[in-house]
Write a structure and sequence with these properties.
The chain has 279 residues and is an all-alpha fold. It has a domain of 181 residues. It is built from 13 helices and two strands, in the order ααβααααααααααβα. It has a two-stranded antiparallel sheet with strand order 1-2. α2 packs across α4, α3 crosses α8 and α8 crosses α9. The protein is globular, with a radius of gyration of 20 Å. The termini are far apart. The mean pLDDT is 90.
Length: 279
């Protein structure tokens, strides 16, 4: 409802500055989830400077998807139990469940067994303890204050706060639903995760999900240079200025082998252990 009011405000009180602010906030919050919560904290695909970690935790809170500690715990369970009953956003429970039902009607959350590394991280635990004020401050009050600089505080709150939040929710949730429904499985046919350019466009590259589930420790999801993955480009740019290091990449021969196995499985030429049949 509030997002609807924000859309009405954007039309009746149009401000190019406010629209630009909303776009900027969407990019900052989205990258904080994809490059921060996901590829940095969940999968440790690279190391980041302290100021980068601080900012992605602040703007990650503004995405209002829970603290990094809770988000990462759920996501690690998803990877280890994908497509099974323990998977928090199991696509086999239906598209709507995987998209948003697990948030609205979620079961008892998994125990915090998979984030002991993050529980030893002072910055992550600081965000966890202060998640609500950070979410309000960076998700609502700060864009409202910035909007007030050109006389559109309400626009800053409604567009950069609420409209941005609703759009971002559905983009993130699409990784759990669309990316397990639409597309190809060129690297691993044992899970529902799929690669799809369309999904990648509005998930900042997370739509190359089959590759990600097969090689979760690679900082790239779109492994090919031409694949649309703004998150990998962002991480690479950080590394160019010394703000990121130890970027993990899967060797090309392993990727090629995974492709060969997936193609063989598709053609019915591999056995149950995932090895190529030679007969």
């Amino acid at each position: 409802m509030v997002a609807g009011i924000g859309a009405w405000w954007a039309v009746t009180h149009f401000s190019l500055g406010t629209l630009g602010l909303a776009c900027l906030w969407s990019v900052l919050c989205s990258l904080s989830v994809t490059a921060g919560y996901h590829r940095l904290f969940s999968h440790r695909t690279y190391q980041a400077a302290g100021w980068v970690r601080f900012l992605v935790l602040c703007f990650g809170a503004a995405a209002v998807q829970n603290s990094a500690l809770h988000w990462v715990n759920n996501h690690r369970v998803h990877h280890s139990k994908v497509d099974r009953d323990e998977d928090p956003y199991n696509i086999n429970r239906g598209f709507l469940w995987a998209h948003i039902g697990w948030v609205l009607f979620k079961d008892n959350g998994p125990e915090m067994k998979r984030v002991r590394d993050l529980q030893a991280d002072p910055l992550v635990m600081w965000q966890h303890r202060n998640y609500l004020p950070l979410a309000i401050g960076f998700g609502a009050l700060l864009p409202m204050a910035i909007g007030s600089l050109w006389g559109d505080a309400w626009g800053g709150l409604l567009l950069a706060g609420f409209v941005r939040l609703v759009i971002q929710y559905h983009a993130t949730f699409a990784t759990n639903s669309l990316a397990h429904t639409l597309g190809e499985r060129p690297y691993d046919r044992s899970t529902s995760a799929r690669d799809n350019f369309f999904t990648a466009v509005f998930t900042f590259g997370e739509g190359y999900h089959n590759f990600h589930h097969r090689f979760e420790n690679d900082y790239r999801n779109g492994v090919e240079p031409w694949q649309f993955d703004p998150t990998k480009w962002f991480i690479f740019c950080l590394s160019c200025v010394g703000a990121a290091r130890d970027l993990k990449r899967v060797p090309k021969d392993k990727i090629a082998h995974a492709r060969a196995l997936a193609n063989a499985a598709k053609a019915g030429l591999s056995n149950s252990s995932g090895q190529l049949r030679t007969e």
